[in-house]
Amino acid sequence: MIRIVLAEDQKLVLGALVALLTLEGDLRVVGSATDGAEALHLAETLQPDVVVTDIEMPVLSGLDLAMRLKQRRSKAAVIVVTTFARAGYLRRALEAGVRGYLLKDGPSTVLAQAIRTVAAGGRMIAPELADALWDAAPDPLTERERAILRLAEEGRTNREIAIQLSLSPGTVRNYLSEAVQKLNASNRIEAGRLARRNGWL
């Protein structure tokens, strides 16, 4: 029996995934979460064989979740199931130790097979993304720049970002300036848009 933790912030999608996977005789959903932090706690507590996660989630993204599990030497294999068919996301996912990357518009049988494949030590990547990975530009952003750009995207001021991340407003300004320059953008808004389009946020 392959034990699974599911992480998906849309409750209807989460419920559908639980129902679909429960129909498979060799798969068992032992926990489900609607944000990345809850999923991390469940993965550490329940010790599943596989964690299936979306990318965009509250508190911790699916990629942050994968990176935390990798850093903590979790034995759970991570599969990302997302709407983002962007090579930048796939590259970051692989760097975070993700073993499977599937698109949400695929059939449920593909997800079930991917779970079996990664649980056995293999990898499974949506074929339409595998070729694009070779042409993807490398992510120029640091984790700190990425975090600050995300908050700037939400409309936060430098001061608000500084308070949230325990930095000085001047340090936040410097990080934003560096990110804008790296992305060859004219301002923070354009930098966020370019980074998101490339799968770097």
UniProtKB/TrEMBL annotation:
Record PTM 4-aspartylphosphate, positions in chain: D54
Keywords: DNA-binding, Phosphoprotein
Record domain Response regulatory: where: 3-119
Pfam families xrefs: GerE, Response_reg
InterPro entries: CheY-like_superfamily, Sig_transdc_resp-reg_C-effctor, Sig_transdc_resp-reg_receiver, Tscrpt_reg_LuxR_C, WalR-like, WH-like_DNA-bd_sf
Top-level taxon of origin: Bacteria
Record-annotated HTH luxR-type domain positions: 134-199
Coiled-coil annotated spans: none
Full protein name: Response regulator transcription factor
Upper classification of the organism: Bacteria, Pseudomonadati, Pseudomonadota, Alphaproteobacteria, Acetobacterales
